[in-house]
Amino acid sequence: MYQRRTTPLIQSLLLATVLSSSLITSACSAESSNTPILSNQSTSTEIYKLGLAYFEGDSVPEDDDKAFELFQKAADKGYAPAKHYLGIMYYEGLGVDQNYQKAFELIEQAANQGYANAQFDLGVMYHESIGIEQDYQKAMQWYLLAANNGSFDAQNNIGNFYEYGYGVPQDYDKAFEWYTKAADQGLDLAQLNIGGLYENGYGVPQDYDKAFEWYQKAADQGNQQASNRIGRLVMNGKIDDEGIVIYSTQETGLTLGDIEDMSQ
Fold first, then answer.
1. Is residue 1 classed exposed, middle or buried when 0-12, 13-18 and 19+ CB atoms within 10 A define those classes?
2. What UniProt keywords are attached to this protein's entry (predicted)?
């Protein structure tokens, strides 16, 4: 699920982002008193953006209570993104007591309005049994809706479902297909997952060099697990480490420089 922009996203069980970061937009500028003004004619979008500014601390002091109040006003006007963020706040217990059931209800409302980020999160909630009984089939239904609405996080999770057979027959070819859709949009988790398919020969010929190429793409975006896997490939003699950037590896506590010293 989602956390503030200044902190890492909470990882779902499917190596997904939790909630989509594409929502983050520039918010209304504040007056010198740091109290932006809304009029009676303010639209639900304007109210929502101001709530987002308080939620993120963007041009105004971070204030969960004000963010919740503003999201609620926009949600009362039927604005789906505001319902989604209210659900996030209930999930995280920000500005309100934590309540997974209420989070589910609000995110479901936004999802039913066709909002892709909420559709993805509803899939995560069904998959991880957050506020609702676990249901892989319903999770897949919502991931597919979100993916068709452009969510690369959902595309990655669909690939994960096919790779591990969650609610669907295991199918490495389909896993590769869906991972590729997300990876082509730059999602590091999907790049990591494609690397895993190549490293293990799942649905593709085993190819350590291609595995490295995909791990490198993910590692370049700061994905530590990809860095760990590169270190593992080097330690196991699967790739030539000449010219490879040194990566710290949490699994071994070593760096590629350490590995080079050990091999001399």
1. buried
2. Signal
Dihedrals phi, psi of 255, to nearest 5 degrees:
-120, 165
- The rounded distance, in Å, linking the Cα atoms of 171 and 74 is 42
Hey, what's the torsion of the CAs at 109, 113, 117, 119, to 10 degrees? Answer: 70
Helix (H, G, I), strand (E, B) or coil at 52: helix
Return the structure tokens found at 52.
Answer: 């987002």
Residue 47 Cα distances to 24, 40, 66, 132, 213, angstroms: 15, 10, 11, 30, 45
Distance, CA of 264 to CA of 260 (rounded, Å)? 7
Closest CA to 157 of 15, 47, 9: 15
